[in-house]
Amino acid sequence: MLIESAKKTLKDIFGYSDFRPLQGKVIDAVLQGEDCLVLMPTGGGKSICFQIPALTLDGVAIVVSPLIALMKDQVEALKVNGVEAEFINSTLNEEEQAAIIKKAVKGDIKMLYVSPEKMNSESFYYTLLQLNISLIAIDEAHCISSWGHDFRPDYKRLGYLKKQFKDIPIMALTATADPLTQKDILVQLNITGANVFKDSFSRPNIYLEARPAYKRKEVILDFIQQRGRESGIVYCLSKKNTEDLSRYLKANGISSGFYHAGMNSDVRDRIQNDFINDRIKVVCATIAFGMGIDKSNVRWVIHHNLPKNLEGYYQEIGRSGRDGMAAHALLFYGQQDYSILESFNEESERKVILNARLERMLLFAQSNHCRRRLLLNYFGEWTVDNCGQCDNCRGRQNLINGTVMAQKALSAVARLSGKLPKSILPQVLAGLRSPDVLAGGFHKIKTFGAGKELSLVDWENVINQLIGLGYLKVDYEQGTILALTPLSNKVLFEREEVMLHHLHQKIQREPKIEIK
Ligand code: ADP
Ligand code: ZN
């Protein structure tokens, strides 16, 4: 049995006695030649998912990775363990590349790491034709989707692989992909029939907190000072923010550097290395910083500005606490950031969807509900459990029983499944005969006007909460069409209680300066 031999390899090469549950399933499927999409949080053990099949199957596995800086380290680590691994990317000269290709063609390499640029070159395509390829693994697969926050045009072209190499299993791996991105990965790679393996996205060791953007610099300085030698990343929206904040921290005795795409690569590499090797404690950076940074003891991540969607937020906070020890994610939010980010979307053809995702980000920040619950539901991991240890779980939530409101809203969606945009539902519930309602025929359903006791604004609030908590979902691909979720039925048919924020409370809590 292949899986038995895979287990032996795991033990012999990596020294682990068993697969983690999801790893076992993924490896089984790949060994049977199936395409897979693997969603595992950072630290979940994605590498083993392709390394073990690579060592078990005949031929050479191609591993596509965007992290040129890391390829060398990964390959060297494998070589130390006796694995015949090599990499090809622009850091090697032509002779070096030719030597590796020769070796691969001879069948002397089990794992070949390749940059996406190289993968797309015509000459390399002819190389691929000469190889006995066992599988193609595409790491950081969210880079293929322009919905993702790390879109790379070179990834987009990898769709040819399945067309040209029909019988070779393709494995896409990522640590962040919301449902929209997941689907896009499958479509772009032409593997819509792939098995999708999903691990829980919960990272319970990361404490989640959000605050209004008030005296940010002072709060950040205080936060860092209270944390002694603990290191962390402050994500900022603009290059100028990163520089200003880093200077401010430095002036206050904190060892800090800044990092953004406008700097030359030598300086960026130096900052990155200084951070990884604990020579500086803090990096103030744009989102250009972080992918593939393998630093296990990042103890906190601060978002100085609102991220543009929850997918990016989750990815960035995931850079903390990779060692499994306690970490802290602090998010600042404000209307000003929101407006700036909204203006960035103005020119886009996909403005409606981008804005819907941005709004979801703001609602998350402003919410009084358990943040972990909101995040997991966003990623389609339907749950009604509160984590008990985020800022909102620990603070006073001031909730009301919203079961009846929820039932009304959900039953309207059930009746208008696949047709009802988010913006129209409040009008339907409040019984407003607006042109949109009449045009859609929405006034003919039984629940029309079932919620006359609440205003449009209140209904909008209720619906946003129901979406956040996973009782309703928005199909962002279809604009903002609402649909039921696996959590909906219990509310509709089993009278499960739904607790909502008080509708008239001021959502922005009093700013507080002291932390902990
Ligand atoms: P990811 O790429 O998903 O962030 P890695 O592949 O780097 O995660 O693995 C994270 C850590 O888990 C590594 O230290 C790895 O050695 C360890 N690991 C992976 N699989 C196993 C296993 N089956 N048993 C024990 N440790 C494992
Ligand atoms: Zn919580």
Q: Could you explain how this protein is built, in words?
A:
- The strands form four sheets. The chain has a seven-stranded parallel sheet, with helices on both faces. Strands 8-13-12-9-11-10 form a six-stranded parallel sheet, sandwiched between helices.
- The C terminus is likely disordered.
- Helix 5 links the parallel strand 3 and strand 4.
- The termini are far apart.
- Helix 2 packs parallel to helix 3.
- The chain is α/β, with parallel strands linked by helices and about 525 residues long.
- The site of adenosine-5'-diphosphate has 12 residues, from helix 3.
Short description:
It is built from 23 helices and 17 strands. Adenosine-5'-diphosphate binds next to helix 3.
Key features of this structure:
binds zinc ion; disordered C terminus; six-stranded parallel beta sheet; ATP binding; zinc; alpha/beta; binds adenosine-5'-diphosphate; seven-stranded parallel beta sheet; 516 residues; single chain; globular; nucleotide-binding
Mean pLDDT: 92
In this entry the ligands are: adenosine-5'-diphosphate, zinc ion
How does the overall form come out from the CA principal axes? Answer: globular
Strand order within the widest beta sheet? 3-4-2-5-6-1-7
How many strand elements?
Answer: 17
Please work out how many helical segments DSSP would assign.
23
Structural class: alpha/beta
Percentage of residues assigned to helices = 40-55%
Distance between the termini: 54 Å
> Could you tell me the strand content as a percent range?
15-25%
Question: How would a textbook summarize the main sheet?
Answer: 7 strands, parallel
What low-confidence regions span 5 or more consecutive residues with pLDDT below 50? 506-516
Quaternary structure state of the chains depicted: single chain
Rg estimate, integer Å: 25 Å
GO molecular function, one term: four-way junction helicase activity
Domain Helicase ATP-binding: 27-195
GO cellular component, one term: replisome
EC number: 5.6.2.4
